[in-house]
Amino acid sequence: MEFTFDLNTIWFILIGILLSGYAILDGFDLGVGSVYLLIKVDDNRRLALNSIGPVWDGNEVWLVTGGGALFAAFPHVYATVFSGFYTAFMLLLFMLIFRAVAIEFRSKQPMKWWRNMWDRFFSIASILIAFLMGIALGNIVTGIPLGADMEFAGTFLDLISPYTVLVGITTVALFMMHGTIYLTLKTEDLLQGLVRKWSKNAAIFFIICFITLTGATIVFYPKMTDNLMNCPLLFIAVILNLLAIVYTVRETYHSQESRAFVFSSLVILTLMILFAIGIFPNLVLSDPNPEFSLNIYNAASSQKTLKIMLIIAGIGMPFVLAYTITIYRIFRGKVKLESTSY
Amino acid sequence: MDVEILARLQFAVTIGFHYIYPPLSIGLGVLLVIMEGMFLKTGNKVYETMTKFWVKIFSLTFAIGVATGIVMEFEFGTNWATYSRYVGDIFGSALAAEGIFAFFLESGFLAILVFGWNKVSPKMHFFSTIMVALGSMLSAVWIVVANSWQQTPAGYHIVGEGMQARAEITDFWEMVFNPSSIDRLTHVLSGCWQAGAFLVLSVSAYYVLKNRHIDLSLKSIKIALILAAFASLFQLYTGHQSAIGVSETQPAKLAALEAHYDSSAAAALYLFGWVEDDQQEVKFGVAIPGLLSFLISGDFNHPVTGLNAFDPADRPPVNIVFQTYHLMVAIGFALIGISLLGLFLWQRKRLEKTKWYLYILVFSVLLPQAANQLGWISAEVGRQPWIVYNLLRTSDALSKAVDAGQVLFSLILFAIIYIFLFALFLFLLNNKIQHGPERADELSSEYRYQKTIVNKGR
What we know:
The complex is a heterodimer. Chain A is mainly alpha-helical. Chain A has a domain at 7-195 and 282-330. Chain A contains twelve helices and two strands. In chain B, 71% of the residues lie in helices and 6% in strands. Residues 444-458 of chain B have low confidence and may be disordered.
């Protein structure tokens, strides 16, 4: 397909930015959740929870806004995917609810059983959210059965395949690495030493998943590389991705967590870019009938709506970036327990 | 049961539960601004203690509001895919604007409001409180705009035919300021202020009755009474404006609100009654003849379009709309009475001695909650059988890829989880209330800039 830089393409990129912002930001707090049960002492668990305390719900807003933007810019994708993946999305919603209330409730009572119960909800939900999102991404790569009316024509079990499970596990590994690097930055002393060790293990876990997934994608879904082959300039993204991974691991092993965190954020960003390059201009591939695929043209809102939203985003996003940066600056440094903490 | 009933039931359960919380956040947000503002102005530590206590309750309601709110955003796509395709061009931009303008503002500054007491100066903290309050109200703006568009569509044209038809925007501002937006937004916001104000009144009255935190509680009651009185009176005005709007834009809904069938006749205003839709009459009703005609036109004999003017397939279910509406109005008047009585007792300096009135306040917290729920039921059921008024039927708006079994499964899970959440919410709320505000001297050490401000205050 001929590449034209029109409103539809701009919205493809903007939604990509929102979802990348989500993956980078909520990625680290989901990652903290994924190793949370390995922390044994109650005060240390509170430190881990409070390291994400002031920011986690702001991070989730990136998902809410990404979802809203998808609804507005590509309503057919929103409608097809959300209704087609009904059961998977309901599970995701229940996990998001449990995770939010677990964070809010766990430290409100001193009883051991109470805290243990919410701690389990929090950690399991964090892992499952990452996993289910990976499954969803994996299905965009493999394609799903769509009818001529744009409706999903499969079942919940059609969404689970070895490939999509692999994407799910890789997502968990990626967030685990990202989150443990973040947690090392926010903690001190013994806890920091422990988390630092986990971040090194998580990096290895991610590398194994990444290599397996890349191999599987090239062998089984070579169409993901079509755009790369047609436009070799895009190989810059591949190189940046590989460099970011190498440097994340290197800085993690040298215990340079601030740099490692920047690089692991870049890993997430470049992976999202590669994913976007792979599917462009499609948004949902139809398999077995590729002619029913949803792309940035047949699934889009009118040009007028795309233009109005571009104005809204143009006015709003600078503010969003300004307060995101302000909040992270205010809460920078090691986390301490106070009377207002969770 | 068929998928339509189940999907509607699920939407009703999830939105009804969700809507317990945002009104509390919006109402408390305004009160927090006043409380913290009073602290900065007077330097009186009681206001600091008060603010910190209500911030804790605020963060509890906010967390559940966020968790149950994400469900709503997903549910349009999961259960109402055809509707989402139909309105995406219009509805989507309102939702995206809500995310970009409101949610980021709210969640960002909430971090400072809850966790930032030691990290920023009091002025910066106060600014954050204002931003959280503003953000929570902005989110109401966009969601009410989207809902109002469903009631009174404007600024659009229809593209495509039959099942392929969908609405596309022609004028953004006409869509935003559609005929019912402003009336409904002001009505919703004053309902939210009432919810927050009566929560503070209830808890504070409880403390006075238990002889705890007397000074702080009386000061809280006074702040909340002012907001309660303003919001309750403003509610009467916005409700009246809404009814006039409905008479012009949604005559079938207005007819259902008062069970008015005959188009050639003037319409009565019922105080209460029971509608027998088959016989087209109101049993056990007490009505003031011609009053509805008078309220919307200024003339007691003005004929009002009745339900008989509509095809039976285009009429909403009458009795449920009638009952919820009349209960809401009755509660609205009760709230005006309670808040004006409070102002009177305050002026006579008898507020803390009038035990029976304090007992009324303790239980009054349920009233705005009930009125908010009833009002929404009345507004949404009154729009039936349309999901977008006169354009798209609810029965045509469902997800085609979802079957009844899937919805039943998720509905049961929602019901279980929400009952569990509600029980926990009440348990934790009760705990916080029993624990009460922290003593001021324990708190103030946390304010890094405390001294300078208190000195300035003097």
